[in-house]
Amino acid sequence: VTALNELGLQAHEGRIATLASSAPIIGTLPWDLCNALDRQYGPQGLHCEFRRFETLDELKSAGLTLAMVRGGPLTNHCVAVLGINDRQVVIADPSLGKLRIPIEQFAAEWRHTGITLHRNAVSGI
């Protein structure tokens, strides 16, 4: 929700979870989340892409991204990457809020995948 708000879109976590077919045990699959965001916010100019990243520099240059991090032994968790510098990564976690974490900690937990978010201007008719 924070990432969508950063792009000027009004979002509600419950609605997004429903659209993405979230389930209590498995959570939300990233490609389902990407498709749900495209369907819901595409008419407002949002474009999402679920992709793999090789490096943190590649993640940094991608812009606003929902990154997949380890949520547990067999699960992933999605956080919005709001900024990266040489020492830390600024994230928005749906459970914990906005955090600054050491870059080494983020790199150890990051799954090298994420959903990039870009918004194009939408002209009215």
Blueprint of the fold:
Layout: H1 2-6, H2 13-19, H3 30-41, E1 46-52, H4 56-61, E2 65-70, E3 76-84, E4 88-93, E5 97-102, H5 103-109, E6 110-119
Antiparallel strand pairs: 1-6, 2-3, 2-6, 3-4, 4-5
Order of helices and strands: HHHEHEEEEHE
**Which fold name fills CATH's third level, the topology?**
Cathepsin B, Chain A
Radius of gyration: 14 Å
CATH superfamily: Cysteine proteinases
Structural description of this entry:
The protein has a single domain (2-119), classed as Cysteine proteinases (Cathepsin B, Chain A, Alpha-Beta Complex). The mean pLDDT is 88. A hairpin with a 3-residue loop joins β4 (88-93) and β5. It is of the alpha+beta class and 125 residues long. The chain has a six-stranded antiparallel β-sheet. The chain starts with a helix and ends in a 6-residue tail after the last strand. 30% of the residues lie in helices and 35% in strands. It has helices spanning 2-6, 13-19, 30-41, 56-61, 103-109, and strands spanning 46-52, 65-70, 76-84, 88-93, 97-102, 110-119.
In short:
With 125 residues, the protein is an alpha+beta fold.
Which descriptors would you attach to this protein?
single chain; alpha+beta; Cathepsin B, Chain A; six-stranded antiparallel beta sheet; 30% helix; globular
